[in-house]
Amino acid sequence: MTTSQTSVAQVDVRYMLADFLLTYLPYDALKPSLHGKEITIKESATRREIWLAQTLIIAIDYAPNPNVTAAKSRWQNHIHFHNHLRGYQLEIKTLTFTPAPLAQSIMAEPQPNAEP
């Protein structure tokens, strides 16, 4: 079943947030949360799989983008997310992508005449 406007209300928003994290977080950021569990991640440039023991529970397919690196391609292309465990799928399409420089988005320099 593909998630649509009529069936999206049946999917808990907490699961969808977790799905986005599983989709976009780098492997190194996910790995610590899996310590001591039977969950494993198998990953390639165009696919990420989440396994519980010997069962595939989540498959994420990233459409390749020849104009950018594999890591950036995840943010700038079409993604198919299939949650086998909960029985739903998501289609994610990036409409625009403009990365904000870390210095500008987190710390702004004080203006010369501004009060501290």
What is the topology?
Elements: H1 13-24, H2 27-30, E1 39-43, E2 47-52, E3 55-62, H3 70-73, E4 78-83, E5 88-93, H4 102-106
Antiparallel strand pairs: 1-2, 2-3, 3-4, 4-5
Provide a descriptive summary of the structure in words.
It is built from four helices and five strands. The chain has helices at 13-24, 27-30, 70-73, 102-106, and strands spanning 39-43, 47-52, 55-62, 78-83, 88-93. A five-stranded antiparallel sheet has the order 1-2-3-4-5, with no helix packed on it. The longest helix has 12 residues, at 13-24.
Key phrases:
116 residues, alpha+beta, 4 helices, 22% helix, 27% strand, disordered N terminus, disordered C terminus
Number of helices: 4
Determine the N-to-C terminus distance. 54 Å
Compute the CA-based radius of gyration. 18 Å
What would you call the shape? globular
Q: What class, by secondary structure content? A: alpha+beta
Q: What topology, given as strand order, has the largest sheet? A: 1-2-3-4-5
Helix content: 10-25%
* H-E string: HHEEEHEEH
Instruction: List low-pLDDT spans.
Output: 1-6, 103-116
Count of DSSP strands: 5
Mean of residue pLDDT?
75
Strand content: 25-35%
Largest sheet: 5 strands, antiparallel
